[in-house]
Design goal:
By secondary structure, this protein is of the alpha+beta class. The protein is built from one helix and five strands; from the N terminus they run H-E-E-E-E-E. Strand 1 and strand 2 form a beta hairpin. One of its GO terms (molecular function) is chitin binding.
Amino acid sequence: MGFCYLSVIVVITVLLQGQSFGKVIQSSGIQDVNSLFEYDCTGKEDGNYPHPTKCTHYVACVAQKYAYEMVCALNHDGNPLHYVQDSGPDPATS
């Protein structure tokens, strides 16, 4: 239970500092799964967009300034899902 509270405090602290990097703790250690990377979000509304090269990733644009490379979720069998453009909600509301 204490670990959950510590995790929440760390996440809140990171968000307040203007950074939003996802981390996954695995038996092999901590691995970045979502990270800031170079992608032009200028003129794009907040939301999710197709990754330019990886179908198992997508780009989350925030404030027309920040781009985050996000890993798609896993399905019930543990296999990665793929981002399919125009298959879901409007990027502005996703």
